[in-house]
Amino acid sequence: MTEPIESGASTGGQVTLIHLGEVRVQEATGEVTPCRVKGTLKSRASREEAHAVAVGDYVRFRRESDGTGWIEEILPRTSFLARADPRRPGIRHVLVANMDQLVIVVSLQKPRYKLGLIDRYLAAANVGKIPPVLVVNKVDLGPESGISHLQEVYSGLDLPLIPVSAQSGDGLAEFKRVLEGKTSVLVGHSGVGKSSLVNALNAELALPTAEVSRATDKGRHTTTWIRMIEVAPGIKIVDSAGIREFKPFGLRADELVYHFPEMIAFMDGCRFRDCTHMNEAGCAVRAAVERGEISRARFMSYLRILEELNQSGPRVRPSGQNQF
Ligand SMILES: Nc1nc2c(ncn2[C@@H]2O[C@H](COP(=O)(O)OP(=O)(O)OP(=O)(O)O)[C@@H](O)[C@H]2O)c(=O)[nH]1
Ligand SMILES: [Zn+2]
Question: How far apart are CA 94 and CA 270, in angstroms?
Fold first, then answer.
């Protein structure tokens, strides 16, 4: 298929699947067209972006006589979730665009939630302007103290927390209510129960879960795909396979604190204007941590991410040291 010479009118639609070079675009009528991306768009993107288009993108494409299409324009994004390309960390990989919310799924046990991963997703949600929601699955496995722990850690944020069990059905009505009328991207560690939760919303979908994969002896994640599905009327979900690593793209050491909203209110009280809150004297953020007004776990996440950013980019030193 050679690229077309401009002719005829273009059509608008939304990208619903990206898999092995195929980009599927759905029109408002529901019609789906397999498309390719025009070279001019690809080369514009390739220096800074892993891919020119993302699932969720609104695009304009030109239809060919064989029923396929060429994407020639990507409309501005209202929100996005981006990671650093695992092989080329300076390159941005936008996983999804134009989402109404980021649903971070964790489980109480098997595997136990990791605050560090939640905090990375929260920072990425802030960068890409997607409101986040935290869904805590497998509450049937307990312990209840896990829920109160998470509630305490995130009490300083505007973060809805929804305890659920795909197995027992607890919390599923609330989970459904949160998704209604929205397009949500589901993220989380492998095995936390994302597919089980989506199946619980609509049993007819029958997405393969861990048991099914073991039973059929087929590795589920030998390929990578991201897709958008309407799981029930008015509930659109983006799920994915094979996305193993997630390091948010676009974080800078000197701006990191702005992705920890509960710390912002205290910053003005720091003695040094460019305080990094690592170990400077007169740091009002650390003082708030000591008083229990900022969650220590969140502060430790801040320090860990800051350290990572310092290793990979220009260093930010405690301001006391910068003076010499
Ligand atoms: N006890 C319990 N087990 C659950 C629950 N939800 C899911 N599981 C089990 O957890 C395992 C993983 O569930 P999946 O739905 O495959 O997890 P996933 O997040 O989709 O995993 P990936 O596809 O690898 O990302 C399966 O064995 C499920 O049966 C739950 O609420 N309680
Ligand atoms: Zn400080």
Answer: 35
Distance 102 CA to ligand 2 centre (A): 30
- Please tell me the residue having the least CA distance from ligand 1 atom 11: 191
Does 150 fall in a domain?
A: yes
> Which SS3 state, helix, strand or coil, does residue 129 take?
coil
Same domain, 124 and 28: no
Residue by residue, pLDDT tens for the chain (324 residues) are 555 555 567 899 999 999 877 899 999 999 999 999 988 888 777 778 989 999 999 999 999 999 999 999 999 999 999 999 988 878 999 999 999 999 999 999 999 999 999 999 999 999 999 999 999 999 999 899 999 999 999 999 999 999 999 999 999 999 999 999 999 999 999 899 999 999 999 877 766 776 655 554 444 455 678 899 999 999 999 988 777 788 999 999 999 999 999 999 999 999 999 999 999 999 999 999 999 999 999 999 999 999 998 887 655 656 544 333
Which atom number of ligand 1 is nearest to the Cα of residue 137?
Answer: 31
Q: The domain that contains 288 carries what CATH number?
A: 1.10.40.50
- Name which residue sits closest to atom 26 of ligand 1, judged by CA: 210
How high is the ipTM of this complex?
0.97
Ligand 2 centre distance from Cα of residue 288 (Å)? 10
Are 196 and 105 found together in one domain?
yes
Residue closest by Cα to atom 9 of ligand 1 = 193
Q: Do 91 and 19 sit in the same domain of this protein?
A: no
CA 20 to ligand 1 center in whole angstroms: 26
Establish if 2 belongs to a structural domain: no
Contact 294, 288 (CB under 8 A): yes
Give Cα separations from 158 to 28, 32, 52, 176, 289 (angstroms).
33, 37, 32, 19, 19
**Which ligand sits closest to the CA of 187?**
1
SS3 34: strand
Q: Which of 55, 75, 95 is at the close of a domain?
A: 75
For ligand 1, residues with CB inside 6 Å are: 137-138, 140-141, 165-167, 188, 190-196, 209-211, 220
Q: Which residues make Cβ contacts (< 8 Å) with residue 305, sequence separation at least 6?
A: 119, 120, 123, 251, 256
